[in-house]
Amino acid sequence: MDKRNSPKLMALIAALLLLLSACATPPAPSERDLEGSAPATTKAPPTYATWDEVLAAARGTTVNWYMWGGSDKINADVDNDIGRVVQETYGVTLNRVPVTDIAEVVNKLLNESAAGVTDGGSADLLWINGENFKTVKDANLLYGPFVNLLPNTKYVNWDDPAMANDFGTPVEGYESPWGHAQFVMEYDTAQVGDIPPTTFEALAAWIRANPGKFTYPAIPDFTGSVFVRHLFYWAAGGPEPFMGDFDQAVFDQYAPRVWEYLNDIETSLWREGQTYPTAAAMTDLLANKEIAFNMDYSPGNASLKIAQGVYPETIRTFVFDTGTLANNNYVAIPFNASNPAGAMVIANWLIDPEMQLILADPTRWGWLMAIDPARMTAEQQARLAGYELGPATLQADVLASKALPEPGGDWVTAFEKGWIENVLQK
Amino acid sequence: MKEFWRWVFIVLMTVAVMAPLLVQIVWSFAFRWHFPDLLPGEWGLNAWRYVFSDASRVGEALVNSMSIALVVSLLSIAVGLPAARALALDDFPGKGAIEWLLLIPILVPGVVTTMGIHIAFIRLRLADTYLGVVLIHLIPCIPYMILVMTSVFASYDTALEDTARTLGASAVRTFWHVTLPAIFPGLLVATLFTFLISWSQYVTTLLIGGGRIITLPMILFPFISGSNNATAAAISLIFVAPALLALVFTSHSLAKEPSILGGFGRM
Amino acid sequence: MRRREWLERLKIPLMLAPAFLVLIVLFSGGLVVGLGQSLGYMPVIGLNEFTLHHYADVLTNSNFLQSLWVTFYIAFTSTLLSTVIAIPCALVLRQAFKGSRFATFIFQVPIPIPHLVVAFGIVALVTQSGVMARVLASIGLLSEPGQFPVMVFDRAGVAIQMVYLWKEAPFIGLVVLAVLRSVGTEYEELAQTLGANRWQRFRYVLLPMIAPAILSTSIIVFAFVFASYEIPLLLGVRFPTTLPVWAFQLYQDPDLSLRPPAMAISVILTIISIMFLITYRRVARYAIK
């Protein structure tokens, strides 16, 4: 038997198939392949002088917007209220790329930067803020500043330091806001009663009296992190000490009280503090009455979840007497974006009053506005005032009166590291 | 008596196997289902409606997952079949070492090599591409193909092939009409395994695909770690369906051919 | 004649070449780069020297041993339990009885189901407010989720092991079943006529026959579970976590200087896994003889 031909044949088939696979790249409907044409030189994405140039360059293009993909409602809303509109009005196609954590994209940008990929990047727009923003800004991974090119930026109150700074990092035109968020506590009136504990002392007392019914998400989860931040403000009697640059002495002054509080309640927590759940898991825990409290950055979420059937109808929200932290959702453009013009068009639409009204509509998105309502027309302001909040949502002025600014990014890192060392690992 | 216990065993096994799957079917049709309800308090089709909508991108992910798995399987066959044959039927110096080398990817965590190769892929503009994802899937898939097919070839008698060639049949005809039918059950099972390995890849696709190549596990993961159980269940069922279908087709071969699974007894 | 000899000599390398090429280039390439990074060689961020201090840092890190223990423990018990369950299943399924085809099919169902799907299903069943808890509540055995034992997000990793058990026991079982089917019943019948009882037939006739298969499949299962990332991340505790999860979290951190330790953990993890498996294989081979 002439065996040599059969394996040779197989080798040939192998080579052929490899070749085929390289050529026949089936295009997924809304995918943009990396154009292998441009070599990795120091080409940078184009910049624009006027808004008209941006509009012209953006027409007929696709924007890859990387954002958290774990909410079917947000996914659908983005496609409908943003995707469809920018398609019809500006001829821009939105390709929403779902990620589990935006840190993945930060990682990707870092890798691309390290590999010298300065243009033709696969991400055009990012939903980002806080520590992640600081990381990418400090590492020069952002395109811009671009905000002043956007006509709708006039609706944003950039004089407000809470807007001009993202967790203490100056925005300086590298980010455009999208929505506003404020921390609220969610609780089950069926388990806690109508009057929740609105001070940390009262909360601790309630926890001790009702063991196993309270917990918070494990750091580095965003929501767990902000809960711990509240405790630092409480220990210091206010946010002032944490507004500037990180100061070890100041940190050491207040940290012990915070760790004491958290370690003190630990044995009365859910699972006796042996483990801390993810933020997403806590929704289930509260819905199933395993715990009595949850926490969220979005004041309108509780009502939304009731409407979605995720929460029972007995859930309500409250804020602490000492206030709760508020911040903004931003979008930013990576340094090597293929389509910064299209990204800017979308960023501009996001702060358009019409879009913001949809955002603030409790029956649509249920978020808080990023623009200054006073800058809208009278008719638009009237529509805003006419919205009916959901059963669990607090009034906007109540929230505003209790709003606290976020500390600088370095403080957050210190708080998180401290928690891991002094509470989690004890 | 013996039959009674055997019956008990079968019932228990069936419950244990089917329960995690059935509960997901129920969840996918649930609107409100909290403790302590045994069945959803309110039923609803919203999870399925979302899954079939454009916003979920399930269709796109399904096509991607399917085509990637098929291409990877085909490539694994093309590359692994000759290698398996050589390992099974021929003797040569260094055979043991080569065998170990070709099978080592099974023992080494996929994360390790992927993390290492990531930057190289970026430089080669392979990151975020379909081809890049196919290549990275090949690493765990080819060894499994080789493992199973080596065993199949080991119990394979080349006499028929020899006869065919002596009678004047060409290499292609011999392969197609003699070799292939003989190894077909084993090949089917091996292909099933490689298909499933590629189908289930999450971390590798995430890293190399960079979020641009959307496969079903990438859509599923945020929902599983999230709180929307109904949608997670619906996507999960879609993720499972083709795999189960493949099982129905190969079940016969799986249970009957000892040589196939005997391949796993080689290590 | 010369040409034929040449082609004959080329045949085998040619057959092995594609597989070798793909795996060497991709796999070893990745491994080598990872190794380099673990030794501190990362030119992209300006690290141009080789050093062992990342390994030292990792090995002396107080969390390392804990994570290693968790990783090992989960892999070991999952493999052990899967094997212990697989053998009796295979023994039952090899008999011909009414419904054996159905039973065998059911036994095969877990094979193609991806681990993510299994994780979701198991969680829906055994979480404190899951279906099992609700069943117990409906017959009055408990009134609150808190009374149901903790199996998810727990230090013992019960739910994690359930997932692996559900997936891997049929895998091991089917291989054992295949071996049992191929050897037939003659040896046992012979032993029976010689007066051996059930246990003796199993211990001295069947067990040696299926031992190599058990050995190989348990190696594969252990290696797989040891290296797994997704299930411990989804269902495990936040701390201490398994080594692969820890390595990946370090890798995902925006701080690029954490890459070398991430790689160091991965390499250590690989070495430990391979060493354990080589030892296990040697010992088991010896025991089989």
Can you walk through the features of this model?
- The complex is a heterotrimer of chains A (426), B (267) and C (289).
- Chain A is an alpha/beta fold.
- Chain A is globular.
- Chain A is 43% helix and 13% strand.
- Chain A starts with a helix and ends with a helix.
- Chain A has 2 domains: 206 residues, 3-Layer(aba) Sandwich (D-Maltodextrin-Binding Protein, domain 2); 167 residues, D-Maltodextrin-Binding Protein, domain 2 (3-Layer(aba) Sandwich), CATH 3.40.190.10.
- Chain B has 267 residues and is mainly α.
- Chain B folds into 2 domains: 44 residues; 211 residues, Orthogonal Bundle (MetI-like fold), CATH 1.10.3720.10.
- Chain B has 12 helices and 2 strands.
- A two-stranded antiparallel sheet of chain B has the order 1-2.
- Chain B is globular, with a radius of gyration of 22 Å.
- Chain B starts with a helix and ends in a 5-residue tail after the last helix.
- The mean pLDDT of chain B is 84.
- Chain C is mainly alpha-helical and 289 residues long.
- Chain C contains 12 helices and no strands.
- The mean pLDDT of chain C is 83.
- Chain C has 2 domains: 38 residues, no CATH class; 234 residues, MetI-like fold (Orthogonal Bundle), CATH 1.10.3720.10.
- Chains in contact: A-B, A-C, B-C.
Sum up the structure in keywords.
heterotrimer; A: 426 residues; alpha/beta; D-Maltodextrin-Binding Protein, domain 2; 3-stranded antiparallel sheet; 17 helices; disordered N terminus; B: 267 residues; mainly alpha; MetI-like fold; two-stranded antiparallel ribbon; 2 strands; 75% helix
Give a brief outline of the structure.
Chain A is built from 17 helices and 11 strands. Chain A has 426 residues and is α/β, with parallel strands linked by helices.
Topology:
The complex is a heterotrimer of chains A (426), B (267) and C (289).
Chain A: H1 5-23, H2 51-58, E1 62-68, H3 72-90, E2 93-99, H4 103-114, E3 125-128, H5 130-138, H6 161-164, E4 165-166, E5 169-170, E6 175-182, E7 184-188, H7 189-192, H8 200-209, H9 222-236, H10 248-266, H11 279-287, E8 293-296, H12 301-308, E9 315-318, E10 324-332, H13 340-350, H14 353-360, H15 378-385, H16 396-401, E11 403-404, H17 409-424
Parallel strand pairs in A: 1-2, 1-3, 10-11
Antiparallel strand pairs in A: 3-10, 4-5, 6-10, 7-8, 7-9
Helix pairs in contact in A: 2-13, 9-10, 9-17, 10-17
Chain B: H1 2-28, E1 30-32, E2 42-43, H2 46-51, H3 58-89, H4 95-103, H5 110-123, H6 130-154, H7 159-166, H8 171-200, H9 203-209, H10 216-224, H11 229-256, H12 258-262
Antiparallel strand pairs in B: 1-2
Helix pairs in contact in B: 1-11, 3-6, 3-8, 5-9, 6-8, 6-9, 7-8, 8-11, 10-11
Chain C: H1 2-38, H2 53-60, H3 62-93, H4 100-108, H5 115-126, H6 131-138, H7 158-183, H8 186-193, H9 198-226, H10 230-235, H11 243-252, H12 259-288
Helix pairs in contact in C: 1-12, 2-12, 3-7, 3-9, 5-7, 7-9, 8-9, 9-12, 11-12
